[in-house]
Write a structure and sequence with these properties.
- The longest helix has 20 residues, at 125-144.
- A hairpin with a 2-residue loop joins β2 (47-54) and β3.
- The protein is α+β, with helices and mostly antiparallel strands and 306 residues long.
- The protein is built from ten helices and ten strands.
- The protein folds into two domains: 3-109, Phosphorylase Kinase, domain 1; 116-303, Transferase(Phosphotransferase) domain 1 (Transferase(Phosphotransferase), domain 1, Orthogonal Bundle), CATH 1.10.510.10.
- It binds adenosine-5'-diphosphate and magnesium ion.
C-alpha cells in the first residue's frame, strides 16, 4: 500500500487489502462518493469497467478488484500504483483522458462503443487503418515521454465521438524507470515484441505491436511466425503455443518471411514493407514511431482517397 493514496477521494482500502466483488454496494464503498454507476460494460479477471456519471458527465470507471489471494498478490506486485499515478498529467487528443486514479481504480473519459477491431471485423479495413494511424499519434506522444504502452492492439483503440481514435487500457504502461518484475511476461502474446518478452521496455515494443495490428487488419491472421499444423492448432494449449512462440522469437535473430497470402484488402509492396520493418525482431531495425505513422498515413491517403 502506498501512503500517498490514503484518504484520497474517500477511498478506503479494506484492512486486509482484499476487495472482494459482490455487486455495486461493495464497489461503491471503495470509489469516490460523488460518482454514480450507470451500468457495467465489461468484466475480465479482476477488472471491471463501468459506465458512470462523473461531474455531470458520462465517464468510465475501471475498477481492479482481486477476487482471491492469488489475484491480490499479482495485483500488489504490479508497478501499477507508481506509474499510473502520472496518468492524469497526460493530455493528447488520441489518448483516453484520465481524470482520476486511486489505489485500485481509474476514472476516465467515455470513448464510445467501438474499437478498431469492430471495424476490421465488419470489413471496414480502410477505416481500421485510418483509425490506427490516428491512434499512433498517441504513441508518438507517449514515446516522447519515455513511456511504453505495452498492450497495443486493435481492441485497445476505441473510436469516440466525431470518429476520434482513443488509445485506452493503461495498466501495462511502463518506462525504463517503471517496469514489471523480471521474468514476468504480461501482455498480448500475438502482439508482443520479442524483446518485450525479456522485459526490455521501450517505445520500440509498441512499434512492433502496431505492426502486428496492421498485419492482422490486412491478413485477418495473428502475427505469429510459428507455423502450426492443424493437429497442433487443435491440441496445443495456449500456454504451449505461447512457449513455442517464445522459443521462436528468442532463438531467431530476425524474421522476414511474413505471409501476406490472401490479403483482405488491396495491398502493395509499400504497406507490406512497412509492416515487415515494423515487425522486425530487432528493435533497432524498426523505423521510428513517427516514421511509421507518416508512412501509414501517406499510404492510407494515396490508396483510399478518391
Ligand atoms: N474509456 C472507455 N470508454 C468506453 N468503453 C470503454 C472505455 N474503457 C474501456 N471500455 C470498454 O471496456 C473494455 C475493456 O477495457 P480495457 O481497458 O481494454 O480492459 P482490458 O484490460 O479488459 O482489455 C473495452 O474493450 C471497452 O469495451
Ligand atoms: Mg483492452
Amino acid at each position: 500500500m502506498n501512503d500517498k493514496y490514503n484518504g484520497k477521494n474517500n477511498f478506503q482500502p479494506k484492512p486486509n487489502g482484499l476487495n472482494t466483488f459482490d455487486g455495486f454496494a461493495q464497489i461503491e464503498s471503495q470509489i469516490p462518493l460523488d460518482i454514480k454507476i450507470i451500468n457495467r460494460l465489461k468484466q475480465k479477471y479482476y477488472t471491471s469497467v463501468y459506465l458512470i456519471e462523473y461531474k455531470d458527465e458520462k465517464a468510465v470507471l475501471k475498477h481492479f478488484c482481486p477476487r482471491n489471494k492469488e489475484e491480490s498478490s499479482i495485483f500488489e506486485k504490479l508497478p501499477f500504483q507508481e506509474i499510473l499515478w502520472k496518468l492524469p498529467e497526460l493530455n493528447h487528443v488520441n489518448l483516453m483522458k484520465v481524470f482520476e486514479v486511486g489505489e485500485n481504480y481509474i476514472i476516465s473519459e467515455y470513448c464510445g462503443e467501438k474499437t478498431i477491431e469492430d471495424y476490421a471485423k465488419n470489413n471496414y479495413f480502410e477505416k481500421a487503418l485510418f483509425f490506427l494511424k490516428e491512434g499512433m499519434n498517441a504513441l508518438i506522444y507517449l514515446g516522447d515521454k519515455d513511456f511504453c504502452h505495452k498492450d497495443v492492439k486493435q481492441t485497445n483503440f476505441m473510436i469516440a465521438k466525431n470518429d476520434v481514435t482513443k488509445l485506452i487500457d493503461f495498466e501495462l504502461l511502463s518506462s525504463s524507470k517503471y517496469r514489471f518484475p523480471q521474468g514476468w511476461i504480461i501482455g498480448s502474446v500475438s502482439h508482443m515484441a520479442p524483446e518485450q518478452m525479456n522485459n526490455e521496455i521501450a517505445i520500440t515494443n509498441d512499434i512492433y505491436s502496431c505492426g502486428a495490428s496492421i498485419y492482422e487488419i490486412i491478413t485477418g491472421n495473428e502475427a505469429s511466425a510459428v507455423r502450426l499444423n492443424d493437429i497442433d492448432k487443435a491440441t496445443l494449449t495456449n500456454d504451449d503455443k505461447f512457449w513455442r512462440w517464445f522459443d521462436f522469437t528468442q532463438n531467431n535473430k530476425d524474421f522476414n518471411d511474413w505471409s501476406f497470402d490472401n490479403p483482405r484488402l488491396k495491398i502493395d509492396d509499400t504497406i507490406k514493407n512497412l509492416t515487415i520493418r515494423m515487425l522486425s525482431f530487432r528493435p533497432e531495425k524498426r523505423p521510428s514511431m513517427k516514421e511509421c505513422q507518416e508512412e501509414l498515413s501517406a499510404w492510407v491517403e494515396n490508396n483510399f482517397k478518391k
